[in-house]
Amino acid sequence: MSTRKSERTRQRIVESANRLFYHQGFHNTSFTDVVMISGVPRGNIYYYFKTKDEILIAAIEYRLERIRAMLENWSGTIRTPVERLHRFIDLLGDTSEALTQFGCPMGSLNAELGKANLDLQTHAAQLFRLFEDWLTDQFAELGYADRARELALRIISIGQGISMMTHVHHDTELLQREQQHLRQWLDQLADGDEACL
To answer: Is the Cβ–Cβ distance between 81 and 151 less than 8 Å?
Structure first.
C-alpha cells in the first residue's frame, strides 16, 4: 500500500469515527460501526489502530487540527478582536442544525468521558483549552488583560449553556435569541461598560 493511499485510508477511518462519536457517543460506537461507515475492513483498521481509545485520540487530534486552522484563519483575516469574538459567537449559529440534534461535539464528548474515562477526557479537554487560549488573547487585545482568562471561560460557559438548552428543547429560535444576548454583552464590553462584568 502506497504511503499516500495509506494516509487516505487512515484519514477515512478517523473522519468516520469522529462523526460516529459525535452522533452516537464514544461508548455507543463499536468497531463494527467504524467498519461500516468508513468502508475499511476490520483487519485494515487494526493495522492503524489497535483499540477504540486510539481511534478516539486520533479523532481528537483531527478536531484540534481543524480548530487550530480555523482560529489561525480568523486571526489572520479578521481585523479587530471584537470582530473575532463576534465570529466565535457566530459559530453557534453556523452549527445550529447539528447542535439541535446532537448538542455540542466538544461538550458532549467531555461530559461522556468525564464519567468513566478520565484519561481520555484529559485529551478531549484540549479542545476547550485551545479555544480558551485564543479567546484569552482576544479579550486581552480588547483591553481586558487582567481578566482575559475569566472572560474567555465566561463566553465558553455561556456558549455551552446555549448549546445544551438548544439541544434539550430542539429550538433554534432559543439559540438565536441567546446568541443575540451574547453579542450585546460583547458589545457592552467593547464599549468599556464594566457594569456588565
So the answer is: no
Tell me the per-residue pLDDT of 12-37, one tens digit each, with 9 for 90 and over.
999 999 999 999 999 999 999 999 99
Mention every residue, 6+ apart, whose C-beta is less than 8 A from residue 97.
172
The secondary structure of 120-165 as a DSSP string is HHHHHHHHHHHHHHHHHHHHHHHT-GGGHHHHHHHHHHHHHHHHHH
pLDDT of residue 5: 86
Angle of the 105-116 helix axis to the 3-24 helix axis, nearest 10: 80
Query: 95: helix, coil or strand?
Result: coil
* Residue labelled with grid coordinates 461508548: 27
Nearest to 129 by CA among 184, 68, 193: 68
Q: How far is C-alpha 75 from the chain's CA centre?
A: 17
| 115-134: burial string, b at 16+ Cβ within 10 Å, e else | eebeebbebbbebeebbbeb
pLDDT of residue 194: 62
* Domains of the chain and any CATH numbers: 1-50 (1.10.10.60), 56-196 (1.10.357.10)
